[in-house]
Design goal:
- The protein is α+β, with helices and mostly antiparallel strands.
- The protein folds into 3 domains: 142 residues, Roll (T-fold); 78 residues, Roll (T-fold), CATH 3.10.520; 90 residues, ApbE-like superfamily (T-fold), CATH 1.10.3980.
- It contains 11 helices and 15 strands.
- The strands form 4 sheets. Strands 1-2-6-7-10-13-14-15 form an 8-stranded antiparallel sheet.
- Strand 6 and strand 7 form a beta hairpin.
- The longest helix is centred in the N-terminal third of the chain and has 22 residues.
């Protein structure tokens, strides 16, 4: 896979040219909604517009379902029930939820704790909308409830239990990637062959864009432009950046990507973009790499077959994984170093 310099953006983003005959056979359909606290976008090609509209509706229904199950802000969600009761006794959970919690625990072990859904005990102290940043003492107290090793999963009884008081979990680092994966799987079942589903910084493309790749931009973390364009076919992609939700205090950026081991925001990187076969992997790896930093993060990427990365460090320099470089990658303006 090659990285295309942003200077080619006009050429690559030109709309597809359809003949009159092809236009009669089908059309592109798209819809945007705000779900899961982010922008959900679906775009697809379908020969019959009625079937296409039905497929778009299936996508939005699935995202609403996942939000209703995994939102920490909805009192009736399965996740809220876990957070409410799991410190007192084992909580029976659905097979879907148990599988996600098990996958999250495996990511935590693989990343040496850089990815940890129990970070929520600290994460809940930050309020980026209202500019609230906890003091060091509050962070230190909350850190006592953080630790993926204390999330007890019982596969026999399919239950989850918190081994420490004050523990909470948050699937925000996983759920959107899971959602785009599920939506693409549903589109396949609907007979759709060309589509993209996006949930904020997480996207999954199905097939190509009728004869050419889909083009996904890597945003400049400190500007209005892009640093690279990625031509994608049947690929998931996730970007984690320090520009999405943050509060500035005395020149320090406190952002939503918190290191579970320290309770504060790491500052070695500005953004991490991960490409892989599925969104669960891309979202989990992007968070892990961002927290781990450039050197360790890139080693994590290189340890996973079929996974690639584009990283922007704190100085604005670009770094690419070997899979992209060996694919004849051409860096954007400013060059890249690794």
């Amino acid at each position: 896979m090659a990285i295309i310099p942003f200077r080619s953006v006009d050429r690559l983003q030109a709309p597809p040219v359809l003949t009159a005959r092809s236009a009669e056979r089908g059309r592109w359909l798209s819809r945007d909604e705000s779900i899961m606290g982010t922008a959900i976008h679906v775009e697809l090609w379908c020969d019959d517009p009625r079937d296409g509209e039905a497929a778009v509706a299936v996508v939005m229904q699935e995202v609403h379902r996942i939000d209703a199950t995994m939102s920490p802000y909805k009192a009736a969600s399965e996740l809220s029930r876990i957070n409410r009761d799991a410190a007192d006794a084992p909580v029976p959970v659905s097979g879907e939820m148990f599988a996600l919690l098990d996958r999250a625990s495996k990511f935590s072990g693989w990343s040496d704790g850089a990815f940890d859904i129990t970070y929520a005990a600290v994460g809940q102290l930050y309020d980026y909308r209202h500019g609230v940043v906890p003091d060091a003492a509050a962070v230190e107290r909350a850190r006592a409830a953080v630790g993926w090793q204390h999330l007890v999963l019982d596969s026999t009884n399919r239950t989850v239990r918190f081994a420490r008081p004050g523990m909470r979990i948050d699937l925000g680092g996983f759920a959107k990637g899971y959602a785009v994966d599920n939506c693409v799987a549903l589109l396949r079942k609907c007979g759709i062959h060309h589509a993209i589903v996006s949930a904020g910084g997480d996207s999954h493309v199905l097939g190509d864009r009728r004869g050419r790749p889909w083009t996904v931009a890597v945003r400049d973390p400190r500007g209005a432009g892009v640093v690279a364009l990625l031509p994608l076919v049947d690929t998931a992609i996730s970007t984690s950046g320090d520009y999405e939700r943050y509060v500035e205090r005395e020149g320090v950026r406190h952002h939503h990507l918190i290191d579970p081991r320290t309770g504060v925001s790491p500052r070695e990187l500005r953004s991490v973009t991960i490409l892989a076969a599925d969104g669960l992997t891309t979202e989990g790896v992007s968070k892990s790499v961002f927290v781990s930093g450039l050197d360790k993060g890139m080693r994590l990427v290189e340890s996973l077959p079929g996974v690639d990365a584009v990283i922007v460090d704190a100085d604005g320099q670009l770094h690419y994984s070997s899979g992209l470089l060996h694919g004849s990658a051409r860096p954007a303006a400013g060059g890249a170093r690794q």
